[in-house]
């Protein structure tokens, strides 16, 4: 818990301006608004000020000043998070430290397949910098034009290529971090082998700014694939989708990059609410799979693998229909159907989002059992299920707008609906947060589903690295 400030607010803001320049300390309500507003409209913070340092030295100086003044710090990148992690939870007790001005690509080494990028670089800028040297940075998110690499690391973001390349954690070789004491840890050597004690970067990846502030990172690059095959497959059930996933893994091996499950409800929402989208198949189907293979061999090799895969599918009678993209434009159309689901849901009305993971082999049973429990406990609730089936991550969202609680007074309220789903996730050996983090939204779930031993260890780390409690208070723990 923070003690009383040692500086007046006026003196504190004056000192911040001396570090960053006056125009980069925003204290007027109209200037702070865009930083204080959670993008989905669920919460509005009230920061003491928004501070925008331009380099690591300024970040360190601001942190030291906040430690001296007992002012909390809420680190913020692109403010695209989904669990209220980058918004102050208490009024006028914290600054928002925005990394937007830390936006330089410091170095790109094509021989080492590495890049050093500052925390405020957008994911799209990092992807482009890799493309410029014929390399690939494979992290891919719907918000890549506005989310930042510091935020991606801080939340250990996932995305659509985890099946092949892993989470953001797997794409990082080193970090530069400002600690809660205002000291700088710099491990930007980019070594793939460094077996000298604790791997300190892992403490900060996924910590959501509660232990320190990431200011730069060494990112792992990959060769650009020579060919890509993108397909949309219609299936009758998640059970058939699981069999196809097994078959695709056997046929394509590590070239299998994406395996997305899309329910028919999702497709209907997209076609209804997103202009420019179109139905791929003559009729609607219960589920679709967006499958992508990326290969480093010539196109003829990839197409031969694909033909063999098609024959296996037909022999096993696993699909209702299928389409292989014949052009980049058609592949983009397939992807638009998938990437537009969240926007379509938002246009359709309020919905309960659940970013969960369960063991891949148990996904069909989870969907069937949880759907049946919801139908019985909350008649009229609509399940909007989609996600990264290849790595076990589903977005098991629920629309309860059509639930008539006058007709069904025993129907679960929204809080109880989420509790039912997360209890099911726990029973299936899964996680209540697969790729979005914990933030302020899921702290109660941490207490419900994490063991006391796990929580005690996390609290010990927090106490050791941030004894004054100034780093993003009210988040995770």
UniProtKB/TrEMBL annotation:
Q: Which residues belong to any copy of the FAD-binding PCMH-type domain?
A: 43-224
Under the heading PROSITE patterns, the entry gives:
FAD_PCMH
Lineage, top-rank taxon, reads Bacteria
Segment forming the signal sequence:
none
- Give an example GO molecular function: catalytic activity
Record has Flavoprotein as a keyword: yes
Matching entries from Pfam families are given as: FAD-oxidase_C, FAD_binding_4
Cofactor(s) for this protein? FAD
Q: Does the keyword Methyltransferase apply?
A: no
One Gene Ontology BP term is:
respiratory electron transport chain
Question: Which InterPro entries does the record associate with it?
Answer: FAD-bd_oxidored_4_C, FAD-bd_PCMH, FAD-bd_PCMH-like_sf, FAD-bd_PCMH_sub1, FAD-bd_PCMH_sub2, FAD-linked_Oxase-like_C, FAD-oxidored/transferase_4, Oxid_FAD_bind_N
Annotated keywords: FAD, Flavoprotein
Give the family per the record.
Answer: Belongs to the FAD-binding oxidoreductase/transferase type 4 family.
Identify this protein by name. Answer: FAD-binding oxidoreductase
